[in-house]
Design goal:
The strands form five sheets. The chain has a two-stranded antiparallel sheet with strand order 1-2. A two-stranded antiparallel sheet has the order 3-4. The N terminus is likely disordered. The longest helix has 14 residues. It folds into three domains: about 50 residues, 2-Layer Sandwich (Wheat Germ Agglutinin (Isolectin 2), domain 1), CATH 3.30.60; about 35 residues, no CATH class; about 70 residues, 3-Layer(aba) Sandwich (His-Me finger endonuclease fold). It is elongated and about 80 Å long. The chain is of the alpha+beta class. It is built from six helices and ten strands; from the N terminus they run αββββαββββααββαα. It starts with a helix and ends with a helix.
Length: about 180
């Protein structure tokens, strides 16, 4: 960095025209003040704009190595293509692996053991089943449909609340 960049405390971005601290600019030794003309936020925004204009129709997943439609990837502002490097399915399994230690094989085994249905309501899996777990111990229990998994969470995994709900439903069964 040259000696002037230490003196300069703030700078005006030539793109957004806002005055910002010099730390909000990428260092550039070719500039007199030692910083890029655009702030970091504007550079990032421009990279995303360029990526979005490329309109990728399909992409190869970094994890499973399969070429899939762009709709199978989540949007990413930082990626050159504007899409995540892993497909949605691989992202989901990466999350399951880090959160519960379950990989594709273990998930598939659980799904087969449950005949592809929710452990509570026995509804067949349309897309995927949620991995239910005890929130106190983090131990995996079974696979549930989204509705049953949400219901357990809303009832705070409390058996007494479930029993009260059952009594309530029985009371108004014919109403």
């Amino acid at each position: 960095m040259n000696s002037q960049s230490q003196i300069v405390k703030e700078k005006r971005c030539s793109r957004c025209e806002m005055r910002k601290p010099i730390s909000d600019f990428t260092p550039n030794s070719r500039m007199k003040d030692g910083a890029h003309t655009w702030c970091k936020a504007c550079v990032k925004e421009r990279k995303f704009e360029i990526a979005c204009t490329q309109k990728v129709s399909e992409k190869r997943c970094w994890s499973c190595k399969q070429v899939k439609p762009a709709s199978e990837f989540q949007v990413s502002k930082s990626a050159k293509t504007g899409l995540q490097s892993k497909c949605r399915e691989c992202m989901r399994f990466a999350k399951l692996k880090s959160k519960f230690g379950i990989d594709r094989v273990a998930y598939g085994k659980m799904l087969i053991e449950q005949n592809g249905v929710c452990a509570i309501c026995k509804t067949p899996s349309v897309d995927y089943l949620c991995v239910d777990h005890n929130h106190k111990t983090n131990k995996v229990r079974s696979l549930l449909c989204n509705g049953c998994n949400t219901a357990i969470g809303m009832m705070r995994e409390n058996v007494a609340i479930f029993e009260s709900a059952i009594q309530y439903l029985k009371k108004y069964e014919n109403a």
